[in-house]
Design goal:
With 362 residues, this protein is an alpha/beta fold. The protein has 15 helices and 13 strands. It folds into two domains: 183 residues, Glycogen Phosphorylase B (Rossmann fold, 3-Layer(aba) Sandwich); 161 residues, Rossmann fold (3-Layer(aba) Sandwich), CATH 3.40.50.2000. It is elongated and about 65 Å long.
Length: 362
């Protein structure tokens, strides 16, 4: 098939960074793939595509231009005449759905998140039938798609975006008196890092001896960084450090003793699963697939989103008993390497592609 892969942008978010692995499976099955991004954001996925010689183009600027980018994408569709349009994220999906209907080209769409803004959910409920087959990145997102968007389960494939590399270096043993806790993610309000700052401030205040043995590291950039830095300064939290965007997430994780993901909503959440694969105990909100992956038997603790005191209790638990936390991390690594193996990633991708191929045969 000639696949036109349409995505919102090539930024450093979870939907763009796995593109080389996704397109690698498509290419291995003999398909020709061309990527089109509707917006120009931070472009941090560009080097990954360049390294794999994956052709792509960006047709928009830093802000959304619905009509302009739709017109440009239509020109590309008419010039390239793809067999299939494969979309990723809401803006790209709605644009691709409408142009696919106009040009009579079948559309396959990703749904990455188990949450949508109300306006986006209403629109996608109306346009869902324009996508001939849906690909979701987890069982939690499939449930969301069926219940919220009214998707037919017979038209859904599950293809997790995360592939656990057995060669990943395991995280450091907690030999140091300081427990290094970290998080990977865009500094956006949806990630709940303001809750984390308040929880660390609470812990420092209520148990200063524990706070002195905790060091929190946030690896990421985003629009909330100034507000978060201001909150850290306001509350006087010296043990939170902003590391900026990292191009080596697994190396960052290898230097930690624990991981935290206090998000408001997620789909699969690649970063949390990378932490599990690195052998880190994880504290997370029970949202998206994390509600199923981050369990006591899989090396995790779930804390309701926004609960500052409960999050502080979970942090204190790790710091007071780092050896128990390390045992949790080892269990997490064993489970994650099995569940999200390279073989499973490729098999699920091939199954999604078979479903797409059946659309063309019909």
């Amino acid at each position: 098939m000639r696949i036109l892969y349409v995505i919102n942008s090539l930024d450093g978010g979870g939907g763009a960074l796995p593109l080389p692995h996704i397109i690698g499976v498509m290419r291995a099955e003999g398909h020709d793939v061309h990527v089109v991004a509707l917006m120009e954001r931070d472009g941090r996925a560009r080097p990954l595509l360049d390294a794999q010689a994956i052709p792509y183009e960006v047709i928009g600027g830093p802000k959304r231009r619905y009509v302009e980018t739709a017109w440009r994408l239509d020109r590309i569709i008419r010039a390239r005449r793809p067999d299939l349009i494969w979309t990723s994220f809401t803006h790209a999906t709605i644009t691709g759905q409408l142009l696919g209907a106009l040009r009579r080209i079948p559309v396959v769409s990703w749904q990455h998140n188990a949450w949508l803004k109300p306006i986006n959910a209403r629109i996608l409920r109306l346009t869902a039938g324009l996508t001939r087959h849906w690909v979701v990145d987890s069982g939690a997102v499939q449930t969301f798609g069926e219940e919220t968007l009214g998707l037919d389960p017979a038209r859904i494939s599950i293809w997790p975006l995360f592939m656990a590399d057995p060669g990943t270096v395991a995280a450091a043993s907690p030999a140091s008196p300081v427990f290094r806790l970290g998080s990977l993610g865009r500094l956006h309000r949806n990630k709940g890092y303001d809750v984390l700052v308040r929880a660390v401030a609470h812990l420092n205040s209520q148990s200063p001896d524990v706070g002195q043995r905790l060091s929190v590291h946030l690896a990421g950039e985003g629009p909330e960084r100034p507000a978060l830095e201001a909150l850290v300064h306001e509350l006087g939290v010296p043990n939170i450090h902003f590391e900026g965007f990292t191009t080596e997430p697994m190396a960052f994780l290898a230097g930690l003793h624990g991981y935290v993901q206090p998000s408001h909503h997620e789909g699969l959440c690649i970063a949390a699963h990378q932490a599990l694969a690195a052998g880190l105990p994880v504290i997370a909100s029970p949202v998206g697939e994390m509600a199923r992956s981050v369990t006591a038997s899989n090396g995790g603790i779930l804390v309701p989103y926004g609960d500052v005191q409960e999050l502080a209790v979970a942090l204190e638990r790790f710091v007071r008993d780092p050896l128990a936390a390390a045992d949790m991390g080892r269990a997490a690594r064993i489970w994650t390497l099995r569940e999200y193996s390279v073989e499973n990633f490729k098999a699920r991708g091939r199954a999604a592609l078979r479903a797409a191929e059946r659309l063309l045969r019909r």
